[in-house]
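Changelog-linked ticket: flavin-adenine dinucleotide example.
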Amino acid sequence: MVFSLWVRLSLAPVTGHQPPHELNSSPAMDFSLSDQQILIRDTVREFMHTEVRPHVKEWERTDHFPVDAIRKLGDLGCCGMLIPENWGGSGLDAISYVLMLEEVARVHTAMSTALSVTNSAVQIPFLSFASDTQKSRYLRRLASGEILGAFCLTEPAAGSDAAGIQASAVRDSAQYKLNGTKTWVTNGSAAGVYIVFAKTNPAAAGKGITAFLVEPSMPGFKIGRHEDKMGQRSSPSVEIVLNDCIVPCENRLGEEGQGLKIALSALDNGRIGIAAQAVGLAQAALDESVKYARARKAFGKSIGEFQGIQWMLADMHTEIEAARALLYNAAYLKDSSGSSSLAKGGSSSSRAKLYASEMANRVVYKAVQIHGSLGYSRESDVERMYRDARVLTVYEGTSEIQRTIIARDLLRA
Ligand SMILES: Cc1cc2nc3c(=O)[nH]c(=O)nc-3n(C[C@H](O)[C@H](O)[C@H](O)COP(=O)(O)OP(=O)(O)OC[C@H]3O[C@@H](n4cnc5c(N)ncnc54)[C@H](O)[C@@H]3O)c2cc1C
């Protein structure tokens, strides 16, 4: 059903700005895209350039969360890309998913963060752990984009150390009572369902965590303060306060004690999404830099004629291609084995996330340098990209945590 939308859209005339660079050069492994993947990439690219690009500056300046634009992407099938069609999703592969996120991040990184959380961190756990009743109630609406999902693990005193969360859930016959505070909840001001992690057995540490599907209308649920962020200002990050929040037992996701397993598998899947954001954002910074290097004159020449600028551009391009190869490899492994890390005993999604997020920061640094003082002005796109990129090495597992995962995998006997 959604696929027919992709086909229909492909027949629409292509108008508007076309990015100067072809996105996909081929890594050594055969990553040539199928006709359907090309159609998805081009459709999202066209949508972002016509419907979103003209508004990005204003949205970022006013901290506007573009829910309507996200819903339109939902109509195109972008809100439930990895979910089978019988549950209302597009039933697409991980390569299609990362292509979509790259294209979104290339224009508006904040939107790609919202899409990454709802598509992956929230919906993937439904596939493995939700009952059919839970899927009927929430997954269909999430996958169509009717509602957005939010993922509530982090707390003021526990981020990387997920087992250290303090939120509690106490069972009382047919319901649980949840107490605690969650921070940095992406989509938190506008979600229809929240996966909340809380301890049902504090003595069991990580093994005592349980996941719950919480609706904002449930008694005791409150949206708290909004974070005043450095970048990605169009993507809301909020505090969620649970004060004797009543959640029926039928809204427990999985079994008691399975929460940490659910959270870690969601994050593992989410990492390829962050790598895709990083590649898309870096590509946009390179595109802007090439344009500027051609246009800006100094000492009677285009600055692109100076070797110092050329070498920066060459390094940016090379690093983006290296990150893209890691990203597509991780997506390919996910498609072929069901998991980007665990099933192959590898840490491909961590490697892609680590390298791509750090690469994006090096690339935006150079993009600002190439733009000179303009790069330091809110007038330029690279100024926003510089701020937007910074969080990529922090959320969904910091670079230090990715290195720990990769090294643990290497050293495993
Ligand atoms: C914009 C944004 C959106 C977010 N969205 C969400 C969301 O939707 N849901 C959610 O639950 N969370 C979300 N987060 C939270 C994010 O996942 C955490 O910030 C991240 O996991 C790091 O946790 P922390 O900030 O508490 O840092 P800490 O864990 O306190 O880490 C501080 C520093 O110590 C280092 N460190 C910690 N442990 C180790 C170790 N074992 N070895 C080496 N170094 C270590 C870290 O790498 C870091 O450099 C978001 C954060 C941001 C900024």
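Closing comment: Example verified and attached. The beta strands are 149-152, 168-172, 175-186, 193-199, 209-214, 221-226, 237-248, 252-253, 297-298, 301-302. The pocket of flavin-adenine dinucleotide is lined by residues 117, 151-154, 159-160, 184-186, 232, 237, 391, 394-396, 398, 400-401, 404 (CB under 6 Å).
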